[in-house]
Amino acid sequence: MESKKxxxxxxxxxxxxxxxxxxxxxxxxxxxxxxxxxxxxxxxTQLWLVYDLTGSYLKLGLVGASSAIPTILLSLFGGVIAxxxxxxxxxxxxQTLISISVLxxxxxxxxxxxxxxxxxxxxxxxxxxAGISAPSQQALLPYLIDRKDMMNxxxxxxxxWQGTRIxxxxxxxxxxxxxxxxxxxxxxxxxxxxxxxxxxxxxxxPIDIPANNxxxxxxxSKGIQFIANNSLFSSLIGMSFFxxxxxxxxxxxxxxFAQDILGVGASGLGLLMGxxxxxxxxxxxxxxxxxxxxxxxxxxxxxxxxxxxxxILFSLSRFxxxxxxxxxxxxxANSTYMIPLMTQLQISVPDELRGRVMGIFTMxxxxxxxxxxxxxxxxxxxxxxxxxxxxxxxxxxSTLGIAFRSSxxxxxxxxxx
Length: 417
Description:
Blueprint: H1 2-16, H2 23-54, H3 57-82, H4 87-110, H5 116-140, H6 150-179, H7 181-201, H8 216-229, H9 231-247, H10 254-261, H11 266-290, H12 296-316, H13 320-348, H14 354-365, H15 368-382, H16 384-405, H17 407-410
């Protein structure tokens, strides 16, 4: 009996690491850890430095917008580019430019020449490169693994973001306090360079990119038309948009929520943000362990509804420990629908349109920072709890509307792959 339990545990561990047996994905995944951890450290250091220089909450928001808007605008272009040229080379070039912008900012800090405008410029450069390269990152993934391990690879890739979301900001804060923002930026650039090295080590057969003499905007419109004419894709990407814009907008006002509603300081805010990340990581690892669910459409719809409901329940809490628990559910519910959603997109998209479709998906998922603007305005008039509850309500209503409209999504099963 004991040996059977041990065998079961080993089987679950093996399932969790299924995609890591592929050399290319293993190298890429380790490089992603270096890059994303550096990104999380960069985020907290950049925001700290902006406020230290300006003392302005408005300018904090403008830095976020300076990064988000180029990402959104250029994702469509990045998708077309990903379908035209070698994706690995595009990633190396874009990541190199990001690293250079961070190193230039690092030098300005050490020389005591840093200004707010420099940080805006870095945000614009990094956001632009993210918009151009993100579709290639999504489009490259299927070429690193076997198709049967796609859901596991998506889960492990997501786990990198969720895991570093828990520890990255704390590490960045400690580095800034101990040795300063310049060293924190330098460490960030090392992480980015590690990702570039990992990309260089990938052994990928040349991807057959058909010759195309069509105009750039004609190619872009084909990606948009494909999604508009395909009920499943329009439903999945539409759900991603509504959940990002209305659901995750709560992150932008969390600092005020923590202080004014829950009565906690910066450490409490860190625990709240970490709880959401920990819940998301837990949900991601569970799905990576269990593997593919047969009723994929049902999981996506129910997970999205649970996400909205968890946000509403969180908005009602005035007890800090309960709020922590509810944010664990917010994060777990997010992973419940997002992992199968991304898996379905990766499996179903035609290779010749992969970059453009994933570019549009990236654009919708990048709406999170912009959603904080209307939510902040509502919070200022009606209060933060009402704003968060309204966001959760919009998630539920949009999910039900999309599910009602698309029988393809409702009936979607893993056997449809």
